[in-house]
Write a structure and sequence with these properties.
33% of the residues lie in helices and 19% in strands. By secondary structure, it is an alpha/beta fold. Helix 5 links the parallel strand 4 and strand 5. Helix 6 crosses helix 7. The radius of gyration is 19 Å and the shape is globular. It starts with 7 loop residues before the first helix and ends with a helix. The N terminus is likely disordered.
């Protein structure tokens, strides 16, 4: 994203604070638990101004991140080329600045990382592999797909989420750098995502992983990819993931849902950006009706137990709830939680946002239960 990439791994590392505290587990089938916040963890973070018009319920820590992000003065992504959009500041930058200003301690990583390039149709894809330190395994395996609307972001930007899952679940995490649009149009990212999953299934043992315990996790566009991987695995008769965690997933193409209307101008994601992302990835807008994009129209029967995490102040909030209901209607076991007062992209902000700590711990608990 920002052209000075040397700072990104450090910034992402700062975000990846492991936690064990979480709100109590509530088992649901098709309803979304709404989780209030515990704002005591970062009481020193005080926003400079009043809550934004588009997010009156925003929590102070979340607002502090958004204020810092806005302070960089970048041009709106939807007005830029993809190449220029990737140079904009990102929420990671804002969190890093708050970490430094508030002297928040950087924890020592509990995982080692390595890289692997794999062959995919028409090119190569890079995998970043997180392996718990100090053990021989076999560990459960999580295949992780980052967000960014299929257009922006990279493994560094989403390092926080991948590292936190590896540490909290005590699992090998394989983070997939699928190819981005508009250089690579639909369904390239989807094909890359599944090829990477196939590679992990075949090579789990060499990663110190347990081939019988593989799950998929994704955020935003990555949440869409993770669900599609489960669908493709089912349809191609290879091992279906034992669980999928979908964090504010893109699940349909209708941008007139209530959450799109309520949070049309939200940050860091708004309706205009989602339109732009869609135009960058799809060749024609009609492709948005394809079940790979509109998961709510896909055949969902036979998918693995699913955890869905949503944010209150997010145009994609209703995508998550709609998908949860469709999965439940198809007989899939679904647990879902909504986190109040936070925006899209909150999941990786555990260094400064209490709801992110809780959401990461909730996801980790769901995965650990599935791996048992």
């Amino acid at each position: 994203m920002k052209s000075n990439l040397l700072r990104l791994p450090i910034a992402a590392l700062v975000l990846a604070i492991s936690v064990s505290a979480c709100t109590s587990d509530k088992k649901t089938t098709n309803a979304t638990d709404s989780i209030p916040s515990d704002s005591s963890a970062n009481a020193s973070l005080k926003p400079a101004g009043p809550p934004p018009e588009w997010g009156q319920s925003i929590k102070p820590e979340m607002q502090s991140v958004i204020e810092k992000l806005v302070s960089y003065g970048d041009k709106p992504i939807e007005t830029l080329s993809a190449a220029d959009a990737r140079k904009n500041h990102i929420p990671t930058d804002a969190v890093m600045a708050l970490v430094e200003a508030n002297k928040i301690t950087i924890p020592t990583p509990k995982v080692d990382t390595s890289g692997k390039d794999i062959e995919v149709t028409g090119g190569k894809v890079h995998l970043r592999i997180y392996t718990p330190k100090g053990g021989n395994g076999p560990y459960p395996v999580i295949v992780y797909y980052h967000g960014g609307g299929f257009v922006i972001a990279n493994l560094d930007v989403y390092n926080a989420s991948a590292q936190a899952l590896a540490e909290q679940v005590n699992a090998v995490v394989v983070s997939v750098a699928y190819r981005l649009a508009p250089e690579n149009k639909f369904p390239t990212a989807h094909n890359d995502a599944f090829t990477a999953y196939e590679w992990v299934v075949k090579n789990a043992v060499s990663l110190k992983g347990d081939p019988a315990k593989i799950a998929v996790v994704g955020e935003s566009a990555g949440g869409n990819l993770a669900a599609n991987v489960s669908i493709a695995a089912r349809d191609k008769n290879i091992m279906v993931p034992v669980h999928q965690v979908l964090v504010y997933p893109i699940a349909q193409a209708n941008m007139n849902t209530e959450s799109y209307k309520m949070y049309e101008n939200a940050k860091p994601l708004n309706k205009a950006m989602m339109t732009w992302f869609t135009e960058q990835y799809l060749t024609t807008m009609i492709e948005g009706q394809n079940p790979k994009i509109s998961l709510v129209n896909a055949k969902l029967k036979g998918l693995p137990p699913t955890t869905i995490i949503t944010a209150e102040i997010d145009p994609l909030h209703d995508d998550g709830t709609m998908l949860a209901n469709k999965l439940a209607d198809a007989g899939v076991k679904v647990n879902s939680r909504n986190y109040e007062g936070v925006t899209h992209e909150f999941f990786g902000m555990a260094a400064v946002v209490p709801e992110a700590k809780a959401a990461q711990a909730y996801a980790a608990d769901q995965l650990k239960a599935a791996f048992k």
